[in-house]
Structure to design on (249 residues):
């Protein structure tokens, strides 16, 4: 029997909500929603980005979804693997249409030097393992003008000059994420990590970064087991948590 994570019956559609992540977190509390539940809205009025950022998405133009996972098989120390699953799923989906897709650590999706998708993952834990993961994805599809001060936004339509049917794209995107999720669940984490490394933005190239000590030139060489960024600079290896280092050029 073919295994499935996503089924049409588990898609919760809302014309307008403040944030699909907020809605998914509420669903978990109120209904104990199943793994594979997807919350989708056409009009997200208060989309949340990383930290205190907001997420711009013009009504009816893009995919703004939150996926509920229950990765109870995963120790909390390996939670970055969920990030890899989601970002590689989005990467695989986009690669069918455009070249130059990359994952900017930890989980921004870029085409060239522009951001096409953002991911916001919120976990809950149970003892030493993950209990739920709400995986929010904002993927710019048909929006062609961006009005917020988001740095370098771009959409699939901007890249290909075509318009897309959001329902069909949702099915394709979920297929890509599902296959990465089973890769993780089945223990093929080496492949997942290898693919993540190969798709990393600026990997193995010298670029300019900034940390608490200032601006420096360095080379991203990979990530640690915990998902921290490894950068070679001045003959040493530096390890960064999220927000401890910025990409300058
Ligand atoms: C980022 O790059 O800062 C993360 C952006 C995440 C946006 C998505 S849109 C769907 C889901 N619901 C939210 O409120 N945020 C995420």
């Amino acid at each position: 029997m073919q295994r499935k994570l996503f089924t049409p019956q588990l898609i919760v559609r809302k014309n307008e909500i403040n944030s699909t992540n907020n809605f998914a977190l509420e669903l978990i509390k109120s209904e104990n929603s199943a793994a594979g539940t997807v919350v989708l809205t056409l009009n997200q009025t208060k989309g949340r980005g990383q930290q205190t950022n907001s997420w711009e998405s013009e009504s009816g133009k893009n995919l703004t979804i939150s996926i509920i996972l229950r990765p109870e098989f995963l120790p909390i120390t390996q939670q970055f693997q969920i990030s890899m699953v989601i970002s590689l799923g989005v990467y695989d989906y986009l690669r069918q249409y455009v070249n130059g897709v990359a994952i900017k650590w930890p989980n921004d999706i870029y085409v060239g030097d522009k951001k096409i998708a953002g991911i916001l993952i919120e976990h809950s834990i149970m003892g030493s393992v993950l209990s739920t993961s709400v995986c929010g994805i904002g993927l710019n599809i048909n929006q062609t003008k961006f009005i917020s001060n988001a740095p370098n936004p771009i959409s699939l339509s901007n890249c290909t000059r075509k318009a897309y049917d959001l329902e069909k794209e949702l099915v394709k995107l979920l297929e890509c994420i599902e296959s990465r999720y089973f890769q993780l669940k089945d223990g093929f984490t080496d492949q997942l990590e290898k693919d993540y490394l190969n798709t990393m933005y600026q990997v193995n190239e010298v670029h300019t970064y900034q940390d608490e000590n200032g601006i420096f030139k360095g080379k991203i060489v990979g990530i640690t087991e915990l998902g921290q960024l490894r950068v070679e600079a001045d003959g040493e290896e530096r390890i960064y948590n999220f927000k401890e280092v910025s990409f300058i050029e």
Observations:
- Residues 8-198 form a domain with the BirA Bifunctional Protein; domain 2 fold (CATH 3.30.930.10).
